[in-house]
Amino acid sequence: MPVTLYHNPKCSTSRNTLALIREAGTEPRVIEYLKTPPTRAELAALAATKGLSARDLLRAKEPLAKELNLAGASDAAILDAIAEHPILLNRPIVTSDKGGRATRPIELVHELL
After folding, report:
1. What are residue 101's DSSP bridge partners?
2. Which of 42, 68, 70, 109 is the Cys-Cys partner for 38 at CB 3.0 to 4.6 Å?
3. Which reaction does it catalyse (predicted)?
């Protein structure tokens, strides 16, 4: 299975993660999630199959997360919110056949390569 990066090119951590993956000799499948947002079903599958929780997928520091009161929200509510507002997707998220992680700090990506 290829390495997939849910990427925001405006985010320096996301850009650095992409560079780290490439330096390791892997060309990832890059999904610019703000241009092509994952569906609610894709988010649920990502969480279910890659060892990520809905909360792992949430960018809790995004002001909109606070505005929507997502701190204590259910997994279903979090996935609904991310599907409706892709800016809420944590970044960067990397998946491979070894699982999935929100790679902050970026060195966590090594566990997936």
Report:
1. 94
2. 42
3. [glutaredoxin]-dithiol + arsenate + glutathione + H(+) = glutathionyl-S-S-[glutaredoxin] + arsenite + H2O
Q: Which residues are known catalytic residues?
A: 11
Residue with tokens 């490439």: 22
Whichever domain contains 72, its CATH number is 3.40.30.10
Place of tokens 């507002």: 85
The total domain count for the chain is 1
Strand 4-7 vs strand 29-32: parallel, antiparallel, or unpaired? parallel
Query: Hey, what are 31's tokens?
Result: 């999904």
pTM of the full structure: 0.88
47 is written with which tokens? 């969480």
What is the full per-residue pLDDT of the chain (113 aa) written as tens digits?
A: 589 999 999 999 999 999 999 999 999 999 999 999 999 999 998 888 777 889 999 999 999 999 999 999 999 999 999 999 999 999 899 999 998 888 888 888 888 88
User: Position 104: which residue type?
Assistant: R
Range of the domain at 89: 4-112
